[in-house]
Structure prediction request, 480 residues.
Amino acid sequence: MNRYPMGLTAVLLVGIGAGVWLSGYQPQIPWIVLGLESAVAAGNEAGKKPLFWRNPMNPAITSPVFTKDEMGMDYLPVYADDGGAADEPAGTVKIDPVTVQNIGVRTVKAKRQVFSRSVRALGRVIADETRITRLHPRTEGWIEKLFINKTGEPVRKDDILFSIYSPKLVSSQHEYLLALRNLKTLGESEYPDIRDGALQMAEISRERLQLLDVPEHQIRELEQSGKTFKALHVHSPFDGIVMKLNVSEGEYVTPKSELYRLADLTRVWVQVDVYEHELPWVRIGDKAQLTLKSMPGRTFEGTVSYIYPYAEAKTRTIKVRLELDNPQLALKPDMFADVTLNTGLQKDAVVVPDSAIVRSGEREQIFVVRAPGKFEPRAVTLGQNSDGWVQVLDGVKAGEEVVASALFLIDSESKLREATAKMLEAAKAEASDGETAMDMDMQGMSMDAPDMSMDEMRLDSSASDEMDMGGFSLDEGSRP
Prediction:
């Protein structure tokens, strides 16, 4: 009956011995993950022990032991000095000179210079509103003859535009002729009141003709000939272009009828649509340059003369008016032009190339050269930009050397190092908290407790008498 307890005891002893043997020779077991030996050997050769391992694609994913990611790529070791020196900002990058040359790192120095912001926008040429005239007849009548009968035709000052027949004009001529005859008869009267009345009547009649736009030369002809004219002329008030013609010969017109629209185009306006975020930089008096696709290579100069006090509802832009001289009439109304406004002049600004700025959406930063092969990321506050240069308000001083090319590679490495530094700080903080908690837990523990004793724990056969092996068999099947 005792052969079963003795056999079970033998099996337990063999199992314990195998476990001890395996635990003592674990480094020799060929169950090691492929790649671990080489990774550990590299660290051992340098005399450094990895703190932890990180995912090669996402530094936020870490592991306390070597492993692989879902694509089969080895995790990379992170050592205690990967976070950089204590006096270096997080994210500082160190690159050997060969790599610097291979990736094409180019540096420039921040400098001080006279700087102005360039606002680029689309402009439209329009006629100067102060040089536009709309001609209406002063009385109703019929157009006898059109001397200028084409839209776009140039006119000179005092050119005859049209002749008009009006009964009112004819009666006004008769009144003036009667006043002249009356003045001639009563002008020698011995009574001053009569002489003054006749003179005053003639002056009033003549002024009435002038108010009805009867030209001076026809008034003189009327005085000399003493005969009325059926049709009277209307002249152009200035040099210009016929922008609109709304009349034809024989047409009946009234003072409400707009017959001609004339514009002097030797000086024009350009309305520029400026976006809301760029409007604070624009000031009256700023200089501007215009270029047109129809005249490549030619640049027109203008000046900001007015900023409109309202925004366009559909485009959310504000119109800015430019004034330009146009002696050759090269700029024509409704032409579109590319406009560059030179605004916000700064006489002493620190500037760097636009290519030196790393824009992440939340902040802007620049990599400053601290030493050969060492690049420090530095957050900056930017001001205006113009012609490939950006004003730096804070973060970089004049004379400091900044990286202007290969920024993507350096920025990627900087982010990895910054993430590593943050993880190292978190690991040190957790380790410090764990040591403090362990010290606190061990203070209340004692090995002298009376309830703890090893006397009752045995593996000898003395306990076999208390074990009932009646239900077990070492042979196949169950015992009958």
Notes: Residues 20-45, 442-480 have pLDDT under 50 and may be disordered. The domain at 135-261 is CATH 2.40.50.100 (OB fold (Dihydrolipoamide Acetyltransferase, E2P)).
